[in-house]
Predict the structure.
Amino acid sequence: MPFSSLRLSKHLQKALHDNGYKKPFPIQEQIIPAIRDGRDVLGIAQTGSGKTASYVLPVLMDVLESNFLLNRHIHTLVLVPTRELAQQVNAVFQLLGHKLPGRIKSMAVFGGVSINPQMINLQGVSILVATPGRLIELIESKAIHLSETKMLVIDEADKMLNLGFKEEVTKILSLLPKKRQNLLFSATLNEEVTKIQSLLLKDPHVVKVKPQEDNIELIQQSAYHVTPETKGPFLRHLIESQSMKQVLIFTSSVVAADKLCEKLVKNGIDAKATHSKKSHMTRTSALRDFKVGKLDVLVATDLISRGIDIEFLPFVINYELPRSPKDYIHRIGRTGRAENPGQAITLVCDEDLHHFKVIQKKMKKWIKLTYTADLDF
């Protein structure tokens, strides 16, 4: 099924083509027509399934066709649990919507930064991606109004409730008009999400997508035995010899991430580190440059990696092993996503051998270990 069959404008189809979207993912084939028909939707899907574009595209079409122009009133509200996800979702709206005729303005708002610039920039916004707490602050400041909202999207509902946003979400729902279209997305369907579903959705179109990170068959995995002394030089050799671009490297700590990044830069490799000790602006800048291909290497910790969502990421390297097999699968699941192949490379020292065997056993997949002592690099 081509995108042209999903009732999307020629401008959106061109934006999709220009950004490497060759054909709709399964979730998009099922969800986009339902949203275009005005139905409520329940999507059970994890990051990496193509979920975000499945609602971004029809939302953009709805705003375009409605010619919504009420200042400081929102046509579509997208609620998300974290600022990283807010920025990611807004980036997709801007990426796919910039070729549309007229000016459809979207914006992400979240806490942890000054509220005043957000209040000013809300002028003319039709699509708002927000974390619950900051949204309530903006509403109480009368910087934004929800009385004319036509569409509500709640993304990663399970995570939002786990983070304790139930009270805020309930308050926001009370401020929205009763007549609206509702789209609910969650990785799991637990008791709390089921309660919101029954409260929010009317005769929803339900789509369930198998978690992408459980499917690692598209990922080409390899492992190299190194010594602590050769680990850094061999990593640089890998990146340079294969002319790698968009390489996501994982370390086990903030200190290790900074040290590795410093070594890479000293050796002429374009790299930046991102972790919880970096400022919000620094993290945002590094991730943006990495996503658009302006930065070759991003060094990250497991914690911050939860906010990294790149649809066509070609390389993941485990410079240090994670603590658990689950984290290992999460790491390598950053690549090989949404039907696109990728490479996951792991560097293993003597002290890592037992733990790496445990990871492979849990993963039920054995990876050939190449000894770098036998290689000429």
Notes: Residues 324 and 359 are 7 Å apart (CA to CA). The radius of gyration is 22 Å.
